[in-house]
Amino acid sequence: MARRAAMLPRHSDPIVAVATAPGRGAVGIVRVSGKRIGPLVETLCGRALKPREATYLPFRDAAGQAIDQGLALYFPAPHSYTGEDVLELQAHGGPVVLQLLVARCLEAAAAPAPGAPVPSSPCLPGLRLAEPGEFTERAFLNDKIDLAQAEAIADLIGASTEAAARSASRSLAGAFSQEIHRLRDALVHLRMLVEATLDFPEEEIDFLRKADAHGQLSNLQQSLADVMRKASQGALLREGIKVVIAGQPNAGKSSLLNALAGAELAIVTPIAGTTRDKVQQTIQIEGVPLHVIDTAGLRESDDEVEKIGIARAWDEIAAADAVLFLHDLTRTAEPGYAAADTAIDALLGERLPAGIPVIEVWNKTDSAAAEAPGPATEGRTAVRLSARTGAGLDDLRRLLLEIAGWQSAASEGLYIARARHIAALQSVDAHLMEAAAQLHAAGPALDLLAEELRLAQQALNAITGEFTSDDLLGVIFSSFCIGK
């Protein structure tokens, strides 16, 4: 299989690592994975262990002194997380204790195996510390999970909202992979028809017409569109969007961040220029993570520290997915205020990439001095609100979800997805569109049609890992923690 062909010599080494998060806790786990680790189990535990049965015992060093006491579990291959023999030592969750257990595993692996025919034969030759994500990488290479499921494990661990966690769990259970497999099976069937027409032209049988190849391709494209829609929503749950609050000093940017977050995150004072650097908080609206950034007030300044904050504010604005351009309703009559807003607006037009939405937010509607806002810039949406009282915040939240592309009605049953999945599905879509053009041509070039279908299948296979480069695997699994 393609996965096994991708295995490197290092994948044969037995590995060990702490499998729980860094820091102190009630329980910590040290995990060993490899082939034929039975002798190491006996050396570490003083006896053989029953498969998949927790055994309470002392973990001893080479001199027989107890390092700790805890539970030992042995999972013989292939019925384990990695598909190899796996030993888990569950001890107290102190970092020193866990490092002592890792060191003991490495020491015991080099010691003579109990009852070995050659007395000097080591318990488990080549045992080494695991690299980031190597346990999950082996689960993938040993066909325990596919690549999309492996990525879902990292996404489940890193989920920032409940909706993202549930979607990652569905991907881990195989929901996304099943959709991809259904697309692939339909694509393989269509490819078979095309190849049959190419291989047996002398039969003068129009395989494509009789098998309704046009209808099959159309159905395939419709199914792909549905998967792409769900995947884009799943990617939104994983990534969220970056929203930057911009405007003049004292327009209420920090107050708006605090109101959206529901906590006093940024310092709010009547003094202009209080915010000198960005303040960032991730909030969730209907499960969608929004990374909201409060920036320094935009103005001309002689203060070197403030100037640095303003420069950083423009950097954040340039990298935003959406900008909230905040206006102070109580100051619209002040000389120079409208001119300063106009200058900021001009700079937004220069520095924002095309297509990045800007929402005009008119703040301080609770003030008796609030004036009616001027018309919003053409193509922009305007919102009136009070960051102090919360009036109008729901309208702003709804707008942010619309900008993000969130579809509330379609949120049930979503699976998590990544940018590379979206790119692969877009590639499949492009190849199917080209295939449709060939199929509908007056004199279809069947060899080109077959090639487009082959490339579409190759892009689909890359999602689940049936066709994946070693370089891509390295990038994906290097983002995992060491013990996973």
TrEMBL record:
Pfam families according to UniProt: MMR_HSR1 (PF01926), MnmE_helical (PF12631), TrmE_N (PF10396)
One example GO MF annotation: hydrolase activity
Superkingdom, taxonomy of origin: Bacteria
Residues involved in (6S)-5-formyl-5,6,7,8-tetrahydrofolate binding: R31, E88, K144, K484
TrmE-type G domain boundaries: 240-405
Binding site for GTP: 250-255, 269-275, 294-297, 386-388
Residues holding Mg(2+): S254, T275
CDD domains assigned to the protein according to its UniProt record, in alphabetical order: trmE (cd04164), TrmE_N (cd14858)
TM stretches of this protein: none
Binding annotation for K(+): N250, T269, I271, T274
InterPro entries named in the record: G_TrmE (IPR031168), GTP-bd (IPR006073), GTP-bd_TrmE_N (IPR018948), GTPase_MnmE (IPR004520), MnmE_dom2 (IPR027368), MnmE_helical (IPR025867), P-loop_NTPase (IPR027417), Small_GTP-bd (IPR005225)
UniProt cofactor(s): K(+)
Keywords of this entry: Cytoplasm, GTP-binding, Hydrolase, Magnesium, Metal-binding, Nucleotide-binding, Potassium, tRNA processing
Family: Belongs to the TRAFAC class TrmE-Era-EngA-EngB-Septin-like GTPase superfamily. TrmE GTPase family.
Quaternary structure and interacting proteins, as annotated: Homodimer. Heterotetramer of two MnmE and two MnmG subunits.
Purpose of the protein: Exhibits a very high intrinsic GTPase hydrolysis rate. Involved in the addition of a carboxymethylaminomethyl (cmnm) group at the wobble position (U34) of certain tRNAs, forming tRNA-cmnm(5)s(2)U34.
Protein's name according to its UniProt entry: tRNA modification GTPase MnmE
Native source species: Paracidovorax wautersii
